[in-house]
Amino acid sequence: MKKIYLDSAASTIIDKRVIEVMMESMNEDYGNPSSTHSFGQEGKAKIEAARKCIAQWLNVPPHEIIFTSCGTESNNLILRSCVENLGIKRIISSPLEHKSVLETIRDLREKHNDLEIIFLPLKDKKGNLNFETLEEYLMENKPTLVSLMHANNEIGNLIDLNYVGSLCKKYNALFHSDTVQTMGHYLIDLANLPLNFATCSAHKLHGPKGVGFVYIKKTSGLKSIITGGSQERNMRAGTENVYGIVGLGKAFDCAMKELEQRKMQIEKLKQYTIEQLTNHIPGITFNGTCQENSQSIYTLISILLPIPNTLVGFQLDIKGIAVSQGSACSSGATTPSSTMLQLFSTEELMNSTTLRISFSHYNSKEDIDALVSALSEIYQKATINKTNTIHV
User: Fold this and answer.
1) Which of 139, 161, 278, 331 sits between 20 and 30 A of 190, alpha carbons compared?
2) Rounded CA gap, 27 and 243, in Å?
3) How many other CB atoms are there within 10 angstroms of residue 14's CB atom?
4) Distances (CA, A) of 41 to 29, 47, 207, 228, 256
5) 3-state secondary structure 114-138
6) Which strands sit side by side in the sheet containing 197-201, from one edge to the other?
7) Cα–Cα distance between 359 and 9 in angstroms, integer?
């Protein structure tokens, strides 16, 4: 049985070229990169080469790229340091953010009684945010951090970083965007975006798990929240993950060099998936703005199947097809996520099944045909069972 992987929003297939450079580094770079001898400095040189490569693609100075373990750590660093070190008294975010943002915000509110938390309201059931209220809040001129993800990890909605950043700049607010789903998938020119902080995880762009980076604009004044060493320009104490960083650098370089080719292939695949699902499953709903290319990330779609079946993900897995029945960071694959609960009523979710299908350039039309065939079979069986139950 051929196995089909359609869960790249959770984690991507690692590029073989990335594995090769990591294996080479594992064999050669066993010295501590903080050591002054040649063994350590050889590893340090590879870290700096990866930093320079990423910085060049993002059009920023290398010292504004700080390596971390993942996007979650990066988001924590930004949010916690802004409150604890920069005097932020208000965070404006959305109820659709990743758990690493939402749970960190809630934790900060418990620890800082004077911290005000504002979640922007949704403009519609597609998950679009009401940005008119953002400007109203910013006009109050309170020390503020705005934290809004570039692309939603469950429904794929994109926000306009330049628009939001310009509003923040106009009213002297700091702007952080969780860019984990878009780094390596879009050309992001940080030098020409009014953005103070951004985040990345290597495993979202065909790199290794356990490594990422945070972009920190030098003028922000952010400080480390992990102490015990001067690594990463005093921004993240702890011995660097040399092999992981080397892998991240290679994955990022490959992703950017091949961006247009990959993007064109995946966009066609996404459109084909939407067409095939529409043709074969009556009553299917596409969540968010995934049918509108300019307003949605091209690497994923979220669907609402018109059948209540908490085992769809499991049934597909038996057939060798991997999709997500909820965010990978949510506990319990069959429990509706906070994002879905914002978009739909409990009754709507009880009478349907949500799936996230996410693509990479490793996927093909044959993969989609197999998925659609399997989903169509599951749908037809569920419909027959429902009819028979009503008849009885």
Assistant:
1) 139
2) 10
3) 17
4) 9, 10, 24, 20, 28
5) CCEEEECCECCCCCCECHHHHHHHH
6) 65-68, 212-216, 197-201, 174-177, 144-147, 90-93, 116-119
7) 8
Backbone angles phi, psi at 77, to 5 degrees: -55, -50
Q: How many CB atoms are located within 10 Å of the residue 366 CB? A: 10
365-383 pLDDT, tens digit each = 999 999 999 999 999 988 8
In angstroms, rounded to a whole number, what is the distance separating the alpha carbons of residues 276 and 307? 18
Choose among 129, 128, 197, 132: nearest CA to 167.
Answer: 132
pLDDT over 50 (residue 392): no
Spatial separation of the C-alpha atoms in residues 246 and 225, rounded to whole Å: 24
| Helices marked H in 11-111 | 16-28, 38-58, 71-85, 99-111
Structure tokens at 47: 């870290």
Burial of residue 228 (number of CB atoms within 10 Å: 0-12, 13-18, 19+): exposed
DSSP symbol at 171:
T
Is 200 among the residues known to form the active site?
no
Distances (CA, A) of 350 to 212, 308, 319, 346, 379: 37, 6, 24, 6, 16
Six-digit token string for 346:
């409990």
Report pTM: 0.94
Residue 283 is classified by DSSP as T
pLDDT value, residue 234: 92
**Which residue among the candidates 70, 82, 168, 329 is catalytic per the annotation?**
329
DSSP letter (8 states) at residue 91: E
To which residue do tokens 């669907």 refer? 303
- Cα–Cα distance, 151 to 159 (Å, whole number): 7
Q: Six-digit token pair at 340?
A: 């879905």
Judge contact between 189 and 58, C-beta under 8 A.
yes
pLDDT in tens, 156-196: 999 999 999 999 999 999 999 999 999 999 999 999 999 99
Phi/psi at 357 (5° precision): -115, 120
Q: CA 344 to CA 351: how far, in whole Å? A: 11
Orientation angle between helical segments 161-170 and 131-138, nearest 10 degrees: 20
**Residue 95 in tokens:** 């109820």
Partners of 7 in the β-ladder: 358
Segments in 112-210 forming alpha helices (H): 131-138, 161-170
Above pLDDT 70, what percent of the chain? 95
